[in-house]
Amino acid sequence: MFRSSVFQWVRALAWAGAVTLPGSAHALIVPMPGWVPVNGDANIWTDSTGKCVMREERYGQAFPTFRSPEDARTFALKLQTSLDARVDAVVTQPVDRAGSWGVLAAYDYVQAGATYRVSQLYLSDRGILRTITGSSATTGADACVNAMRDFIRYLAN
Question: Is the Cβ–Cβ distance between 131 and 122 less than 8 Å?
Fold first, then answer.
């Protein structure tokens, strides 16, 4: 099933160093109508088809609050260089978050012959790294993809 393959690639991506998988202290608010937590975990959400998945993670790692788009862009370029070594088709950009800035990364990840498109938002939560990651297979997930990407790009805080 798609959901289990998504979780497998998330774990594989963690081993590759693109993301890590510690537990989260707080839960993401229901991202969109019709989305449900996976296995009761309020940090992982899926659409009704199971073809799109979002995950919120908080890390113990310090992460600066970017006060300008230039500061966020500097980090985005470093992040792009780092991700380019592990995944394909990487694009990064600063995103405005009510007076501070985050960084949005998008990339393709291939596992077991399937390609997944990932959107990952990097935010500072009182000086600690927090990410919101959305993923779907590059084929067959049309109904949920745009709404998920828009949520991550414009609404996730």
Answer: yes
Q: Cβ–Cβ contacts within 10 Å for residue 153, how many?
A: 15
Contacts of 22 (CB under 8 A, 6+ apart): 57, 58, 59, 60
Closest CA to 104 of 38, 67, 142, 151: 151
19-23, 97-101, 112-116: least confidently modelled range? 19-23
Q: What is the pLDDT of residue 29?
A: 64
